[in-house]
Automatic annotation (TrEMBL):
Record's signal peptide: none
Domain of life: Bacteria
Name of the protein in its database record: Cystathionine beta-lyase
SUPFAM superfamilies linked: PLP-dependent transferases (SSF53383)
Cofactors named for this entry: pyridoxal 5'-phosphate
Keyword Membrane in record: no
Family membership: Belongs to the trans-sulfuration enzymes family.
Keywords: Lyase, Pyridoxal phosphate
Stored InterPro entries: Cys/Met-Metab_PyrdxlP-dep_enz, Cys_b_lyase_bac, PyrdxlP-dep_Trfase, PyrdxlP-dep_Trfase_major, PyrdxlP-dep_Trfase_small
Catalytic activity: L,L-cystathionine + H2O = L-homocysteine + pyruvate + NH4(+)
Amino acid sequence: MKNRSTLSADAGVNTRLAHVGHDPFSYHGFVNPPVVHASTVLFPDCRTMETRAQKYTYGTRGTPTTDALCEALDELEGSAGTIVVPSGLAAISVPFLAFLSAGDHALIVDSVYAPCRLFCNTMLRRLGVEIEYYDPEIGAGIETLMRPNTRLVHTEAPGSNTMEMQDIRAISEAAHRHGCVVTMDNTWATPLYFRPLDFGADISIHATTKYPSGHSDIIMGSVSANAKYWPQLHDAAITMGICGSPDDSYQILRGLRTMGVRLEHHQKSALEIARWLESRDDVARVLHPALPSFPGHEIWKRDFKGASGVFSFVLKVDDAGRFSKKAHALLDTLSLFGLGYSWGGYESLAVPVNLSDRTIRKAPLDGPVIRLQIGLEDVADLKKDLEAGFAAAAAV
């Protein structure tokens, strides 16, 4: 490839994914970047060592392999800089620690990823940060929650498990009027279907464990920042010694190459199954932003370029005392859908959703919530598997 910059600006999504993050001719023409393992990096002389006047100085500060992934993510995100970290939760906690201090107030969306809530309620509160949860659909109304010490607003769209949409631009504009940094967990959409920095967010967070990996065998996270907040984020990552490994970075780069075609398949199959579930009498509601019936559909349609393979549905159960029994009967019958956490891999998954930690958006009253990750299997086979589950639930 002779002109990568022109290609990145003009080419389609899948073409860009095939080429971002590495110049083969920078390393003897090999298509994939080398895996460079490093702790110690040697300096040619004392002056170079004292002034750090060379690109690589120590393994925690990056290698050509981790840099290749960060460069690829910067091109996809439109960001000034990216760090890679050992997990999706680390991708949330590092920027929180970078931008929050004792006495600060942080606004966290109530539909947040549950481990993020645990981190806020334990670690951040112990460090003296005031935590307040807000309704995901608050939009510009978040300005009413601002205090003189509010420093950070965390967003996630769609929300974990219940899929609430957020007006990221309206929230960002309100937050910026009060000098707040806006972070967004964008794992569900990936930068292919939504770019947070284009809508006013300052920090884009991903569990690259999910769709960038695509094979359920890597744990990793990424944090991408705009020019204003990149230096502070980078300094925090260096100070904390948090870094992703070269081996995992190499695997994520491999996953990126096929992420576009995989996401198209995930999206198509998930929507077909979501519409099918919506037509069933034993389903109370389907929680999928791309469905016109979903309350946040108009925001999704306005701001997002697509949908991934994760959504939830509410199983219709008349007796609240039987919520768990019905859900367990359905889930325990499934054979193609695995019972397992995470998502974004090639296989379909299903989990019962626990919403007991919510403070504002409580669990629905019309039935238990079940979250599905629609993988790359044939839809007809997945429907048969779910049919068996519904039959088992009806028999309880």
